[in-house]
Amino acid sequence: MLKPKGNKFVHDTGSLLAGTPSLLIGENYTTPLNLKEVRDKESKNFLSIYIEKLKVVEPEAKFLRIVKEKSEELGENLSDADVAVLALALQLRATLLSDDYGVLNVASELGIPWKTVRTKGISERRKWVWYCPNCGRTFERHLRECPACGSPLRRRSISFGGPRDR
Questions:
Q1: Which residues form a coiled coil (predicted)?
Q2: Tens of pLDDT, residues 95-144
């Protein structure tokens, strides 16, 4: 587990819109992609209350690569905004604030400290595999159909331990 440096928090979009109390303390960060996810007027107005306490930072390419590789390894299908917020938390050695189970799964695997806003969070780490319901074969990476029989593949998770210390 990475040891957070000071009182640094990186917020995903859900955390920002929840009005997380950490927005009133410490250093608070998000990414340009997360701000772009805030579209409706009501949410933008709500966010304007906190915007001056928020540093908007683009994560470095090397951290984006690390997060993309780990999310692919786990079979998580993360958005660019999810990847960016994870990369920024890794880069800054900050605590990530999110309720997104896929994001928390990758954060846990990368040793990024995290806290939830409105949910309990993850109770175990998971890896996603694709399988053929027809012939039973499994695949580590996402394919649309089974190369052996042509059936559409489905996804299931495999648990491999509890979340790392938060």
A1: none
A2: 999 998 889 989 999 999 999 886 665 556 667 777 788 898 887 777 78
Which residue type occupies 28?
N
Q: Where are the domains of the chain?
A: 8-115, 126-159
pTM listed for this prediction = 0.74
Burial of 127 (0-12, 13-18, 19+ CB in 10 A): middle
For residue 148 the two structure tokens come to: 């052996």
Given this structure, which CATH class describes domain 8-115?
A: alpha beta
CB environment 49-79: b (16+ within 10 A), e (fewer): eeeeebeeeebeeebbebbbebbeebbbebb
